[in-house]
Design brief:
The chain is an alpha+beta fold. The protein is built from 6 helices and 18 strands. It comes from Lentinula edodes.
C-alpha cells in the first residue's frame, strides 16, 4: 500500500519537505514570493515573482477527484455550454477552453502527507488573505474565485484547483494567423475568373461549372489519422477529433488543433489528451509544478455602469482611497504534471454529447521548482498487493507506484533550497481546517 513504511507516501513526504520553498507547502507569501505584473503595463492581470525576480513556480501534490468536484479533462474542457442541450453555447476556433484538475488529500494519507497537503492549502489561503488586507484598507469590493476550495458544500477547505494550458489552439478575430486564418478548412479554392469572348454562339455553348477533385464538397471529412510515437511531444498539435467525447452541437471547430501538454504517466511518457480519462482518473496520485496567476475582470456597478479596475496591490501602491468593484480569479496554472501513483477506480468511457441525454454540469520555462520535480526521476514498477482508494470513498483498488530505490537515489541529487527553520509544524490530522478562521501551518 502507499502508506506502508518506506512506501510512496514516506518518500513523497521526504522529498517535499527537503525541497524548501520550492514546495508550495513550505513557501511563504511576501517572503518567498511576491505579487508582480509580468504582463503589459496596461494589463490588470498579475502573477508572482520569487526572490530572484523570476516567475514564481512551486511544486504541489495530491489525489485527483472526479468531475462532480470540478475535474474536467475531456474534449469540452471547462467550457460551459449552458443548460439547454438543444441550443448550447458552442466551442469554436475563437473560444478558449482549458482542462481543470482538482486535487484532494491522498487516500489513507500518513500524518506527514496530511500535514504537507494542509500546508499547501495554508499557502494558497494566505495569498488571498494578503489581498484582503489591502482591500479592507482601500475600501475595495471584490468577488474572488480562489484556488483552494471545499468539495463539500459549506465544508472546510480541502481541495486545490489546478488549471491546465489551452486545450486547443485559438484563432484571433480580426488578426489573421497566417493567410488561411479566416478561411473555412473545407471551403473550395476560388477559381480565377476569365472574361468570355463576346463572339460566343449561345448560352448552350458556355461551359458548365463542375466539382472536381480540386474543389471538394464542403461536407467532405478528412480521414482521421492517429499520430505516431515520434509525433507525440510537448506542444504537438493533433486533430481535435481524436478526443473520444468530441462531437455533437457544442463543437463548431474547423481549424482548432488539440495541443499536447507536459503531462506524464508513471513511466515518464507523455499522456496524449485522448487518454486523459484513463490515466488521470479519480484516485490517481500526482505531483505538479504550478505558477500562481490572478486575472482581474471588470465588474458592473449597481447602476449598470462599467467601472475601470486595477489589481489590488497596484491600488494600494498608488494610494487610491475609493471603491472599485471587480472580480479576481486566482489560477494555479499547470506548468507540468507527473503521475506517481496510478488508480484502478472504475470509470465510464467518455462519449460525444450527441449520445447523452443532457449536458454535464460544470461549475514554462525551467524554474528551480520544475527542475527539482524533474530531478525526482520517478521510475515505476507494478506494485503487487498495493492498494489505494478514491478520496472520500471506501472502494479499494490496486495502483502503480514509483520504485523505492530509484526515488531515494534521485532525492539525494535534488535541486532544493534549505528547509524552513524548525521544519513543518504538525497540523490537525483528526479533522480539516475551518474556512471561517485563518489557516495556519
Amino acid at each position: 500500500m502507499r502508506a506502508n513504511p518506506g512506501g510512496i507516501y514516506d518518500r513523497l513526504a521526504k522529498s517535499f519537505t527537503e525541497m524548501g520553498a520550492i514546495a508550495l507547502a513550505n513557501a511563504e507569501i511576501n517572503q518567498d514570493f511576491f505579487p508582480h505584473n509580468f504582463g503589459e503595463s496596461w494589463s490588470m492581470n498579475y502573477s508572482y515573482r520569487d526572490c530572484d525576480s523570476a516567475l514564481f513556480s512551486a511544486n504541489v501534490f495530491g489525489e485527483i477527484v472526479g468531475q462532480a468536484h470540478g475535474t474536467f479533462i475531456g474534449a469540452q474542457g471547462n467550457h460551459y455550454a449552458g443548460k439547454d442541450p438543444s441550443n448550447p453555447t458552442v466551442l469554436d476556433d475563437y473560444t478558449k477552453t482549458k482542462c481543470t484538475i482538482v486535487l484532494a488529500c491522498p487516500s489513507f494519507a500518513t500524518p506527514p502527507i496530511t500535514n504537507l497537503f494542509y500546508n499547501q492549502l495554508c499557502t494558497l489561503d494566505s495569498v488571498r488573505d494578503e489581498d484582503k488586507k489591502g482591500e479592507i484598507r482601500s475600501g475595495l469590493s471584490v468577488d474572488a474565485k480562489e484556488i483552494a476550495k471545499s468539495i463539500r458544500t459549506g465544508g472546510d477547505l480541502d481541495a486545490i484547483i489546478l488549471t491546465g494550458p489551452a486545450l486547443y489552439s485559438v484563432l484571433k478575430k480580426g488578426k489573421p494567423n497566417g493567410k488561411d486564418n479566416n478561411l473555412s478548412a473545407t471551403s473550395p479554392p476560388r477559381r480565377a475568373l476569365k472574361k468570355r469572348s463576346l463572339a460566343a454562339a449561345s448560352n448552350d455553348d458556355l461551359p458548365l461549372l463542375q466539382v472536381t477533385s480540386e474543389t471538394p464538397l464542403p461536407t467532405a471529412e478528412k480521414h482521421l489519422v492517429w499520430p505516431t510515437a515520434e509525433e507525440i511531444f510537448v506542444g504537438a498539435e493533433y486533430d481535435h477529433r481524436l478526443m473520444p467525447d468530441f462531437g455533437g452541437p457544442v463543437f463548431a471547430f474547423e481549424k482548432a488543433k488539440l495541443i499536447q501538454p507536459d503531462w506524464r504517466d508513471v513511466n515518464g511518457d507523455l499522456i496524449p489528451p485522448w487518454l486523459n480519462h484513463k490515466l488521470l482518473r479519480p484516485g490517481t496520485l500526482v505531483v505538479a509544478n504550478i505558477s500562481i496567476q490572478v486575472y482581474v475582470m471588470i465588474s458592473k456597478s449597481g447602476d449598470g455602469m462599467v467601472r475601470k479596475v486595477l489589481p489590488v496591490f497596484f491600488v494600494i501602491l498608488l494610494g487610491f482611497d475609493r471603491t472599485f468593484d471587480f472580480v479576481q480569479i486566482y489560477h494555479a496554472v499547470l506548468n507540468s504534471l507527473w503521475v506517481v501513483g496510478g488508480s484502478d477506480v472504475l470509470i465510464t468511457p467518455p462519449v460525444p454529447l450527441l449520445h447523452r441525454s443532457s449536458l454535464p454540469k460544470q461549475n514554462t520555462s525551467q524554474t528551480a521548482a520544475a527542475l527539482a520535480l524533474a530531478a525526482l526521476n520517478f521510475n515505476v514498477e507494478q506494485s503487487t498487493g498495493a492498494s489505494s482508494s478514491l478520496a472520500f470513498s471506501d472502494t479499494p483498488g490496486s495502483d502503480s507506484t514509483v520504485d523505492s530505490d530509484n526515488l531515494d537515489a534521485a532525492c539525494d541529487h535534488e535541486v532544493h533550497r534549505s528547509a524552513k527553520d524548525g521544519g513543518l509544524e504538525a497540523a490537525n490530522v483528526e479533522g480539516r481546517p475551518s474556512p471561517k478562521k485563518k489557516l495556519r501551518k
